[in-house]
Amino acid sequence: MAKTQSRFICQNCGAEYRKWTGHCDACDAWNTIEEERVEAGPKATGAITTGPRGKPLDFVALEGQSARPPRIITGITELDRACGGGLVPGSALLVGGDPGIGKSTIMLQAVGVLAARHKCAYISGEEAVDQVRMRAARLGLEKSKVDFAAATSLRDIISTLEQSNHEVVIIDSIQTMYADTLDSAPGTVSQVRACALELIRLAKRKGFAVILVGHVTKEGQIAGPRVLEHMVDTVLYFEGERGHQFRILRAVKNRFGATDEIGVFEMGDTGLVEVPNPSALFLADRDAPVSGTAVFAGLEGTRPMLVEIQALVAQSALASPRRAVVGGDSARLNMILAVLDARCGLPLSQFDVYLNVAGGLRVGEPAADLAVAAALISAVANTPVPAETVIVGEIGLSGEIRPVGQTEARLKEAAKLGFVNAYVPKQGQSAKKKLTIKGLKQVEIVHLQDLINLFGQDIGDKVRPREGMY
């Protein structure tokens, strides 16, 4: 009879300890270490070379032709885009997101469409049959030929899938699955790792695509061991704010396609509706130009996307003025403020600065620096950016404006939406020919001071501290 041993494992990162401690040294988390009981396997009696000889490996050359993996088209264009063109048979896909963001909804919509052409199974460990039926009726999918089951026992699920011929299997969620070979609660590191490994191994052996729905921690990371993301072929994060109707499905890992690809959805009464032109949707509420706003030509994966960046500069009565950023990078905002002060003589240290990316989208690429600076300067000068103007460029520490990648794709998207002006960096000597976009007038910005001059020469007088303020 195998002996049962106790070990203490961090539920956040999977680190193991010989005894309980309140602090995990690996991930710096508190109160995440729990005791788990496992059966000790037989101890090794010697080196591996003393046992039976293994069979020799067949080495091959890297040069050669390999067939591209076939794809299972879900019929939801934005989901297929995020997956790299569809689901790959025999692959494992992990979908994570905040509670209530729409993970179960988009998965049910996907299998509802796929069931017309492929044999699909949906296994839920969180909801009962009646709950899923109510959601299917709300989405108009009650007549879809989807094989549904509510189960949490990994042994029962494996036995069922062994005898079936499903092409797509969805597990909602992996944290609720339970392997009876482990003496630990569902959702622990050991359970999540063991259940995911068995499901992925079965999917690769039988050739069906398995989609694992995962919970996330309060920091936004997928709950459970980090090795779970290494085990799967594709990792998708469902992003969005509860106050906005937009949902972003972002690929952060994809062995069969590009990373950082996104799909855009809009939450409605009948579920998630895909948005084929997110630029027009993010800019739909723009009226007449107002000060403190600028349109940035961004790039998400291979998709150009135009978003509005808003800035507010207000006199502060505090010793340490506020710096609030929603949807952007606070470190880059501080850098831009420092460059405006040191290189352009525009001191904003005594002001509260608020920055917001409209629509709930998150922008992190350096190409947004020039648009952020334009919004700040526009707010200080109380002068709107010229109408129908798009801005893109990276700011260096010396104040120079550096070129960005795929400028042509960004500007073509702006011209398609009716923009007529563009503030862009000066093209370097490596450019083979001058970039021209029909209907779009380009203004080259060499230094950040050139952008300030477009708003007037008296901006510095508007940011001087008030007399007797301190």
Q: How are the SSEs placed, and which strands pair?
A:
Layout: E1 4-10, E2 16-17, E3 33-39, H1 77-83, E4 92-97, H2 103-114, E5 120-124, H3 129-139, E6 147-150, H4 154-162, E7 168-172, H5 189-206, E8 209-214, H6 227-231, E9 234-239, E10 246-254, E11 262-268, E12 271-274, H7 278-282, E13 293-300, E14 303-315, E15 323-326, H8 330-344, E16 351-357, H9 369-381, E17 389-391, E18 394-395, E19 401-402, H10 407-416, E20 421-425, E21 441-445, H11 448-453
Helix pairs in contact: 4-5
Short summary:
The chain has 470 residues and is an alpha/beta fold. It contains 11 helices and 21 strands.
Keywords:
alpha/beta, 3 domains, Ribosomal Protein S5, domain 2, zinc, ATP-binding, DNA_repair_RadA, Rossmann fold, zinc-finger, nine-stranded mixed beta sheet, 470 residues, 21 strands, DNA repair protein RadA, single chain, disordered C terminus
